[in-house]
Amino acid sequence: MTKAARLMLPFGALVLIAALAHAQGPPDFSKVQIRTNKIADNFFTLDGQGGTIGVLTGPDGVFMVDTQFAPLSEKIAAAVKQITPQPIRFIVNTHVHGDHTGGDENFGKMGATIISREELRFRLAHPNPQNNGQPGVPMPAAGLPKQTYGNRLTLNMNGQEIQLIAVPRAHTDGDTMVFFPGLDIIMTGDFYRSIQYPNVDRNNGGSVQGLIDGLGAVIGRAGPNTKIIPGHGPTVDRTAVATHRDVALAIRNRVAALVSQGKTEDEVVAAKVNADLDARVQEPGTTGERFVRQAYADLKAGR
Ligand SMILES: [Zn+2]
To answer: What ranges do the domains of the chain cover?
Structure first.
């Protein structure tokens, strides 16, 4: 997540986007192309900038998972129109981050009903302060979820059962896993990602243990042929998720041992407990250190 990615940019706020581009170098949304990938006869993913979008089509209308950034909404709506003439009826947000919820207001105004965990709706309405210290920008009413749920919500559309399953305090405190048992597809949002190390947004209620438990919940539902579509990175199978969980557990346990020896955060980072794990992570970059620091903070907080 970049700073810019946390913001929920109102549609048409080009001046603000230009200012951000100058200050922080986020993507030039005008150059972003939406790529459509067919996963099953009536199921597609859309990749543009930000989290991967899921699209279930059929006579009942479109069910969509996440919305990417607000400036991309017209392109995303056009990409959906290329697949089906049906309207976008329902959207579920997998978590609060702006690269997954930024388009909510636009799609809400187009008539879609947005669904999320109760915790996620609260965070959209009462966002954390921005990194520069300015107050967070609440999601306008048209973009707030109209339907919320606690532990689980099941929809039946287009001949498919759609299970929205709460994943408590993982990447954030509002994470949802979306399971399509008839299609053998699971979408995870960002509590699982097939590139980089795990990422826990503690400021938005995430926790390392919750993330590890969430990965276990995915593995437990997945069969050998289940397509697991992460928030970021390519579609994978359950063995990739199991590897990711092994990496998360190894780091958490190694950091715990150092914490119990009284090491400081910087001493734990200097120990490079993730060095031998980089080979098991696609595009690790500096995300190993980030996750080590997150694990340290959680363990110090007694989680
Ligand atoms: Zn995220």
So the answer is: 3-25+32-237
